[in-house]
Specification:
The N and C termini lie far apart (about 70 Å). The radius of gyration is 24 Å and the shape is globular. It has twelve helices and eight strands. It is α/β, with parallel strands linked by helices and about 400 residues long. The strands form two sheets. Strands 2-1-3-4-5-8 form a six-stranded mixed sheet. Strands 6-7 form a two-stranded antiparallel ribbon.
């Protein structure tokens, strides 16, 4: 009886192993055929699914997959401000090898790694890197909050991740979602070149959403005030320096730009008459860093600043919706919320930085190319503009903001 029992156990074990292997092969075949994040491009993938690939809960993996799926020479890197408003398909590019790698809440710990991945894996000619105001003095590290560590962008990504992209159950779930979206003709949130197809829909009206940003704690906020008190985050500054040096070593042109904020986001009544210049410390550090690095290469690094008090950035916040009015009647023309400008503004920023014809000549003052020679004069303009906003065009909105029950404390 004993040998018979052993033979039965062995047959049962072989059957289980065979079934498991078959399931693994079928999952791998399904995942590679659908390729939901584009990270495993193979000849037999279904090309017609391309508009439906990419899931927002694996956005870093999706953006890395976009890089793997083609050959790109120009990359746009930064937070959701880049993802939402910088169109890689604009006719002004005059080329088709431009990719948008912006990710929601991707601050410098992530964006520098994403930029480095682009440099190491593509024939990189131009990198445009957006920096959010407040990030260089913020302790916030967004890498653990999203799928960065399980994406190819992570320096620690290895064979385990590559196997998961083919055989993983999370990949299989994404494959099912991709097929379902394809059958329903529902394109993915991000297009094949990485730009967000439409801005995020905020709950309720724009007015209510903006109010909620001041009354709801948000661990992703990069700054809770425009003041100069917070120390620099040396770790982030070091990562930025390393990336810029890598660009120079690879002869890749790089344009760094300081993002625009709506003026109300960090405005505070206590700054009236104080002489505070919002984010002065960060600007001075960026100018010095780039001035120190630029002489090392025949291709100088460029720095542009869009965080100022141009009328575009001081647009009045919509009032509460009157009874019976439609929500769209109260939206700001150029802002989706206080941190996200529209693609039309993004196109103007690109035109200024890259020397294209300006789509809105009347907006030419929204950005300034900075260097040590013009920094002090520009900071004086920013400080003067801030005081004007606090006491004139922004006074009504500031009073409304400070009348809210603010519970956000910032990082």
């Amino acid at each position: 009886m004993k040998p018979v029992f052993h033979r039965s156990a062995r047959r049962y074990a072989r059957l289980l192993i065979g079934l498991a292997t078959l399931c693994l092969v079928l999952v791998g075949l399904a995942n590679s055929t659908v390729n939901p994040w584009r990270v495993t491009p193979v000849p037999w993938e279904i090309k017609s699914l391309d508009n439906f690939r990419g899931t927002k809960d694996h956005l870093r993996t999706t953006k890395a997959g976009i890089l793997r799926s083609g050959e790109w020479k120009v990359a746009l890197v930064g937070s959701s401000r880049v993802a939402n408003a910088f169109d890689p398909s604009l006719p002004s590019w005059g080329r088709s090898d431009v990719v948008n790698l912006g990710c929601n809440a991707a601050f410098l710990n992530e964006t520098t790694a994403i930029g480095r991945y682009f440099l190491e894996h593509e024939p990189a000619e131009l990198l445009l890197l957006g920096i959010d105001p407040g990030d260089l003095t913020s302790k916030v590290d967004t890498r653990p909050l999203f799928d960065f560590d399980t994406s190819p962008f992570s320096p620690d990504s290895g064979l385990d991740n590559e196997l998961r992209y083919v055989f993983g159950l999370s990949t299989f779930e994404a494959s099912i979602t991709t097929v379902q979206d394809g059958l329903m003709m529902a394109p993915a949130e991000y297009g094949p070149k990485g730009m967000r197809r439409s801005p995020r829909a905020h709950p309720g009206t724009q007015h209510k959403f903006i109010a909620s940003t001041f009354t709801t704690p948000n661990e992703l906020e990069t700054a809770d005030a425009a003041g100069p008190d917070r120390p620099l985050n040396e770790g982030k500054l070091g990562k930025l320096r390393d990336l810029l040096e890598e660009c120079q070593a690879r002869d890749c042109r790089v344009v760094v730009f300081f993002h625009s904020n709506h003026a109300l986001m960090h405005a505070e009544t206590k700054h009236i008459g104080s002489g505070v210049i919002p984010f002065e410390k960060e600007r001075r550090v960026l100018v010095k860093l780039i001035a120190d690095l630029s002489p090392r290469s025949g291709r100088p690094i460029e720095l542009w600043d869009f965080c100022n008090y141009h009328a575009l950035n001081c647009e009045a916040v919509p009032s509460a919706i009157p009874e019976g009015a439609k929500a769209q009647e109260t939206k700001m023309a150029n802002w989706n919320d206080l941190g996200h400008f529209t693609p039309e503004v993004g196109s103007q920023m690109l035109a200024l930085m890259l020397g294209w014809p300006l789509p809105h000549p009347e907006w030419s003052g929204i950005g300034r190319k900075l260097d040590p020679a013009n920094l002090d004069a520009y900071l004086h303009e920013v400080g003067t503009g801030y005081q004007r906003y606090l006491t004139q065009e922004g006074a009504k909105d500031l009073a409304w903001k400070e009348g809210l029950k603010v519970v956000r404390s910032g990082p």
